[in-house]
Amino acid sequence: MEETENKQPQPPSRIVTIAAVAVLTLLAGGGGWLVGAALAPPPPGPEKTAVVSPEATGVEGLPKLATEENGIVQLEPITTNLAYPSENWIRLEVALQFNGAPDVALAEEIHQDIAAYLKTVSLQQIQGPRGFQYLRDDIQERVDLRSDGRVTNVMFRTFVIQ
After folding, report:
1. C-alpha–C-alpha distance, residues 35 and 92, integer Å
2. Which of 18, 27, 45, 103 has minimal Cβ neighbours within 10 Å of its Cβ?
3. What residues in the chain have per-residue pLDDT under 50?
4. Which DSSP letter does residue 96 get?
């Protein structure tokens, strides 16, 4: 009698625990799939595509937004080192939106001006969202001064610090 009273209940074995976790995982995955299928919009049907001229397409065949018809000029990527620390590099791709017909010579002057300005910027000046906003404001101001109001918008396409 004493032997049966001293026995403590044994915890479930590892196999039972693994099986229970696997079943619960499958149930959760299936439930998530059902909810996702119920909430997701149906796939779009076939649409008619517009005919795009060959000179207005990019490398992948997608239409380029930066075309002279739109008044947008895509500048060449700017890659330069920062003022401090000089081992850090910055790569910036910018597009300019002109008010009226784009001026390629002015766009090249602005490109050189932005490249010269980026060489004077330190990493501490452009860290974080506020630093990036200051950089955008400074470049917009320099473009406004250089273009005498002919450039209405400066669009940042890529911004990488390495």
Report:
1. 42
2. 45
3. 57, 62
4. E
